[in-house]
Amino acid sequence: MSKTSQDSIKAFNKLYRLPMSDTPALINGSSISTIERLEAFKKTLLDEISEVDDIINKLRYREAHDIPMSQEDTVNILADIADWLGDIQIYCKSELLKFGLDDELVFSIIMSSNMSKLGDDGAPLYDEHGKVLKGPRYWPPEPQLRRYIQAAIRTGYVK
Questions:
Q1: Which domains does the chain have, with CATH numbers?
Q2: How much is the pTM?
Q3: 133 close to 125: Cβ distance less than 8 angstroms
Q4: CB of 34 within 8 A of CB of 26?
Q5: Could you say which DSSP state residue 65 is in?
Q6: 68-105 pLDDT, tens digit each
Q7: What percent of the chain stands above pLDDT 90?
Q8: Which of these, 109, 86, 105, 87, lies nearest to 97 by C-alpha position?
């Protein structure tokens, strides 16, 4: 049986003594520690997101100096992007686990909601920056997320 990303995150959190919950819960059941946890995660995520500036600066330097992109350069830049985006995913998956939330189920619900954003004609809608807009058949994910969390708390669901 192959190891899922959630299994890997659980092993990492256990090894590094990071908090985890088997069922949906606020951190230690306290709003104060939950606030502190969210603030700490926000700082971590903002720090991680800002690391894209290094990649952007490398690309801008090449562009400003008209340096052609070799295959090796392309591979190196893509590896940097993969590492950056992968780290963000890991931080987010770990944070979901700390709150006892099933990352695959949360992802599935949100993606289903995202797929409901199409226009009446079945075509995607975009704003001027290319962001996908919500169409007339869009449904928000929060009600389904609430049902999942309520059921998981009620049944003691453990993934």
A1: 1-101 (1.10.3420.10), 103-159 (no CATH)
A2: 0.83
A3: yes
A4: yes
A5: T
A6: 999 999 999 999 999 999 999 999 999 999 899 999 99
A7: 75
A8: 105
Higher pLDDT, 2 or 44: 44
What confidence category does residue 27 fall into, taking pLDDT thresholds of 50, 70 and 90? confident
Place of tokens 């088997």: 22
159 band by pLDDT with thresholds 50, 70 and 90: low
Amino acid in position 86? G
Residue 29 has pLDDT above 70, yes or no: no
- Rounded CA gap, 131 and 117, in Å? 11
Interior angle at CA 23, CA 18 and CA 25, nearest 5: 75
Give the type of residue at 118: L
Separation of alpha carbons 98 and 121, rounded Å: 41
Tell me if 24 sits within 8 A of 153, measured CB to CB. Answer: yes
**In the numeric block, which tokens belong to residue 147?**
């049902």
What phi and psi values does residue 123 have, to the nearest 5 degrees? -95, 150
Alpha carbon distances (Å) from 107 to 48, 79, 153: 21, 24, 19
Taking CA atoms, 155 is separated from 18, 26, 45, 60, in Å, by: 25, 17, 32, 53
- As a whole number of angstroms, the distance between CA 126 and CA 86 comes to 26
Q: Which tokens hold the place of 34?
A: 């939950």
